[in-house]
Amino acid sequence: MIIRSISKQLKEWKCDEEHKPLILRGARQVGKTTLINDFGQSFENYLYFNLDKKSDRLLFEMEYPLNELVNLLFTRTGKIRAKGSTLIFIDEIQNSPQAINLLRYFYEERRDIHVVAAGSLLENVVDVGCSFPVGRVEFLPLRPCSFLEFAQSMGRENMIEIIKQPLYSIPFHTELMALFNQYCLVGGMPKAVQHYVDNGNIMALNKIYSNLLKAYMDDVEKYTRKGKTNEIVRYIIKYGWMQAGATITLGSFNGSDYKSREAGEAFRLLEKAMLLELAYPTTQTITPAMPDLKRMPKLFWFDTGLVNYVGNVRREMIGSDAIHQIWRGRIAEQIVAQELLTLNNDINQTRRFWTKGHGSNGAEVDFVWMVDSEVIPIEVKTGHNSHLRSLHSFMEETPLDVAVRVWSGPFSVDHVVTANKKKPFKLINLPFYLIWNLENIVRKEL
After folding, report:
1. Which uninterrupted H or E stretch holds 238?
2. Nearest to residue 427, comparing CAs of 373, 367, 384, 371?
3. pLDDT score for 223
4. Terminal C-alpha separation, the chain
5. What percent of the chain lies above the pLDDT cut of 70?
6. Domain regions of the chain by residue span
7. Which of 156, 259, 307, 326 is most buried (CB neighbours < 10 A)?
8. Is 404 exposed, middle or buried (0-12, 13-18, 19+ CB in 10 A)?
9. At 371, which helix (H) or strand (E)?
10. Could you read off the pLDDT of 245-286 as tens digits, one per residue?
11. Above 80 in pLDDT, residue 375?
């Protein structure tokens, strides 16, 4: 069984006297239903409803006072209400605007009942004719499994204890990188992770990945409006994985004939579905490091395992000790981007990179990440410190003296001077398996 770290946030939500109905956000098959079904066992009363079923949906659309509806919900499940806490889980809630509107009344009238709602892949794409009751619900994202969750699922809790202290990881570096490479190959989709834990066969995951892609395609037909947007969304899901980690143009994306405005709408729909993100650059080295939406974005998908499957690069990755060498280094950026999202549960967080100038004379740092209101540059590459030209360019403009390089080598902190020999700074060499601890490590050096 895969244990998700988000379970801690769910327990805190349960104990919060000011809790609001919880909207669990995430792409299809990231484990929302399994997670809440397990969480529901901690309540004296747990009621599950799937609004894909007409009988369940009609129940929430009956115009009864809320107290009467609650009684009907117990009747529907055949359960007698026991003393103690109650959790109602409304799955696939996007199918019923009335059910969405009901969430506000659970908050205003029945605070004694805990309510969790979740939707399927394109939960925000469908025009349901209403909006979520802002201010009366809260959101929690559920993303694919992180490296820590993967390691725990693999029974390697001992490795997790080791990497809590970065210096302790150095003697175990080779073993830890081998474990991270497995994670990079498999990805974080719970079903794929569980199958790999049980069987240890990468190639046996093909059917799981294939079924996932088919499910996403089917959801396009189910939840998007017909017409050009539908067509472009299908095109992106079919071919866009090949552009993971790359800077893209929206117009003529991947050699298509689609215009920028048309493609932009399709990408925005898939972003709302949490299948991908367009990460825009910033030109600032201090806060507020606002994104420059006029520049070309990078495309990051929600799961590296699916990227590897569609790109057919898994055989190339098996046995490789340098993630940077695979697929022109883009897999390295993709997996770092995926791990960065696990650093907190902010539903609105976005990934950004830094640029300066244009063309051959320009500079680009792979990521910038906010740590205590400071803009931290992150390069994803190996090689000598003097070859990090763009990182040096960033450090010459920032008042900070700390930078991060994610690489396949062991943890260390180098004292470096920028290329113009004017500014010293500390370069944190962070192995991939320590990205989860990036913020704490950076704070110690600031």
Report:
1. helix 228-239
2. 384
3. 63
4. 39
5. 90
6. 7-141, 203-445
7. 307
8. buried
9. strand 363-371
10. 999 999 999 999 999 999 999 999 899 888 999 999 999 999
11. yes
247/294 Cα distance (integer angstroms): 13
* Residue 13 phi, psi dihedral angles, 5° rounding: -65, -40
Q: Which residue has the tokens 């280094």?
A: 329
Strands (E), 287-334: 298-301
φ and ψ at residue 243, rounded to 5 degrees: -100, 15
Amino acid at 166: P
- Residue 211: pLDDT above 50? yes
Tokens for 232, please give them: 């472009």
What the block records as the tokens of 176 is 């830890």
CA distance 315 to 203: 9
Residue whose entry in the numeric block shows the structure tokens 């990188």 = 177
Q: Are strands 281-282 and 276-279 parallel, antiparallel or unpaired?
A: unpaired
Local structure of 6: helix, strand or coil: coil
Helix (H/G/I), strand (E/B), else coil: 115: strand
What homologous superfamily does CATH list for 7-141? P-loop containing nucleotide triphosphate hydrolases (3.40.50.300)
pLDDT digits (tens, 9 = 90+) for 119-158: 864 445 444 445 667 789 999 999 999 999 999 999 999 9
Residues 420-432 pLDDT 10s: 888 999 999 999 9
29 — phi, psi (to 5°)?
Answer: 65, 30
- Phi then psi dihedrals of residue 135, to 5 deg: 90, -15
Q: Phi-psi region for residue 245, left (φ > 0), alpha (ψ -120 to 50) or beta?
A: left
Residue 443 identity? R
